[in-house]
Design goal:
Cytochrome Bc1 Complex, Chain D, domain 2, binds heme C, 4 domains, 22 helices
Amino acid sequence: MNKIIFSLILALMSINVAFAATGNAEAGKTKAAMCAACHGANGIGATDTYPNLAGQHADYITKQLNAFKSGTRVDPLMAPMAAGLSEQDMADLGAYFSSLDRTGGSTASNDGVTTETGAAAAVQVAVVYEANAISGKSLYELGDASRNIAACIGCHGKEGNSNVLIYPNLSKQHAPYIEKQLHAFKDKTRTNYAMNQFAGAMTDEDIADMGAYFVDTKAVAHIKVKRVVTIAAITEEAIAGKAKSAVCASCHGADGNSLVPMYPKLAGQHAEYTTKQLKEFKSGIRKNPIMAGMVAALSEQDMAELGAYFANQKPTLGNGKGSALGRKLYFGGDASRGITACIACHGTSGKGMAKAGFPAVANQSVEYLTAQLTSFKAGERDNDRNSIMRNVTKRLKQKDIEALAQFMSTMK
Ligand code: HEC
Ligand code: HEC
Ligand code: HEC
Ligand code: HEC
């Protein structure tokens, strides 16, 4: 078992330490000569169909070149361009283009507005959707929780200037290019898990609005957009956490609903509690060899974002069968044996209390609940402040523990 777990950790870690060549901007400049015909000598696309590369994050450029080469991103013009590039070439090109100034600006596009006059043009205006830059800005900054569209700003930054290197800059990109990519993500001809979801929920009008916003983000900078509907609080933290949770999915499930009972569900758990556990796995106060490996590289900010993300997910039902004894102990404890009722801290429906640090226990798997109660009782898990849970479990018998787990798992 240990061997399996160990090789699993190694396999997971190797994803992060994949070889990355270091780029040389000087060498990249020479190699970029062949890109100039389309992307411009200064990295500003020659026409609307060629994206600006100037000032884009180097890692993002390298990643896209790899994708064009391997065919995971399909484009007839870029495939042959990338085919002959080595890892080193790509890194050099990334370093070069990222060093250029992103001042070229987006060339104004004709979204829904024609600059021509005359009868033919007038007819065109009548049938074309009038894209609205303010609607675009609103969707960009607030998202639409009712349709599961996350706020773009959470990843791509204010006005498209992202300071997180894995998220491409959109600022000053040609509007038609942005629209083309959103359509590509929508019909999945370009694949990226997050973007396929968000663009998939966007209508053609939303996409046109987003393009219109990027024609000139400064033009509507003074307009404050207001959230019209508040359904679920999708904070910037939660959005960032989603991307970071990808490495957790193999055990805890894509949305924190793990399919394997030995791995706890994280969906719907309080952010404060999850963050505390992650910190304690890292410092070793809570001991678990698998999780220690998972959290080693996480910063406090990562932990806060992961906590926020999982707190926003809806838990699926637990696998418990229910238990009369479990119910009795949960709600009433056992005064004769000095067992405190669990309800006092974990609440009437097992949702706990976020601020007090009492975790949700509802919907959790029987196996995980049993393991934790057993571990507290043995004192192996000792990260509970003031020994709260160690004292509670001290007097529980194995059959009480099993009964409680069967009951709590059915709470929702
Ligand atoms: C013949 C024209 C042409 C040439 C030459 C060309 N490209 Fe491109 N490039 C394109 C087009 C068109 C796209 C947009 C593809 C799409 O719509 O998905 C693109 C997209 C890209 C992207 C993705 C940009 C983004 O924001 O996702 C990168 C990176 C890129 N090219 C790098 C290069 C480099 C480096 C070279 C030189 C080695 C090069 N290109 C040469 C036409 C060209
Ligand atoms: C969870 C983070 C996240 C959110 C939220 C997000 N994106 Fe993205 N977006 C990405 C990532 C990552 C990529 C790069 C995908 C790749 O590597 O091909 C991307 C790529 C893009 C691109 C292509 C850029 C290029 O240069 O080719 C566009 C356009 C885009 N996103 C627009 C949006 C819009 C509009 C929204 C809001 C509706 C949005 N994104 C929300 C993460 C996000
Ligand atoms: C290889 C499998 C695996 C991966 C990947 C993994 N975990 Fe875990 N996780 C576990 C196991 C096993 C436990 C139970 C530990 C215990 O019994 O104390 C756990 C427990 C936890 C707990 C404690 C839950 C609770 O209710 O107290 C949190 C929080 C957590 N993991 C978060 C994460 C996050 C965030 C990631 C991604 C950064 C992640 N895990 C990746 C296996 C994994
Ligand atoms: C006085 C408050 C209190 C009482 C009473 C209490 N708990 Fe807890 N419980 C806690 C706290 C606090 C934690 C979290 C410890 C930590 O920070 O790791 C916890 C954690 C747990 C966990 C681990 C959750 C996880 O996701 O890992 C389980 C299971 C649990 N309690 C079950 C019970 C049961 C069953 C009872 C009743 C027999 C009970 N608790 C009574 C405060 C309490």
